[in-house]
Amino acid sequence: MPSGAFEGYEGAEDPAQLNRAAHDSATALLARVREDPDPEVVERLVAFTDEHGIDTVAELWSRAGARSLPGALWRIYLLRALIRQDPTGMGYVYERGAERATTGDRVVAGAASPTGPDEVLALADQILRGAFAGDFAIALERAASFCRITALGSASLADAADLADSDRGASLTTRALRLSQLAVELSACARLWRRERLD
Q1: What does 22-54 look like in DSSP terms, one character per residue?
Q2: Residue ranges of the domains in the chain?
Q3: Regions of the chain where pLDDT drops below 70
Q4: Dihedral sign, CA of 55, 59, 64, 70?
Q5: What pTM was computed for the model?
């Protein structure tokens, strides 16, 4: 390639600049909406990924650290997207986990009982709405509780599936692990937010 041809190529974006942009955008958005939580604006933010796709949010925040404000917002949007992709399946997994839960996670998550597709869809919207217009730490804790319950439900289904279909059992086990990790990250963000250390 002739040396002049390199002029047409831009270098990769600086990771530090991308990280700063993620933090600045998350901070500005949350501060602006929480300062004046206009219900119309909050509803537009809740429905943002329905119109523009989860990839738009991913470009902004998915590379941010798990224990950061953009990382927390990304995880809440991601959880909502997972629920919206398969509300029937998520409702079933949640209900299965709730039947086996021995903690207060079902109360904290706040899903109506029995929990079906309509209930998990409503819960996903309530959690995201609460991130913008309510107590942010509570929204994070509700999301974490939902993840713990669905992780428990996925693990239970994995145990049952292992006998008939080991691949399905492995897939459900992986999902349970990812949901558990998501719960840990969301809970950590809630603690940091309460200490005013989530940036």
Answers
A1: HHHHHHHHHHHHHHS--HHHHHHHHTHHHHH-H
A2: 14-194
A3: 1-13
A4: negative
A5: 0.90
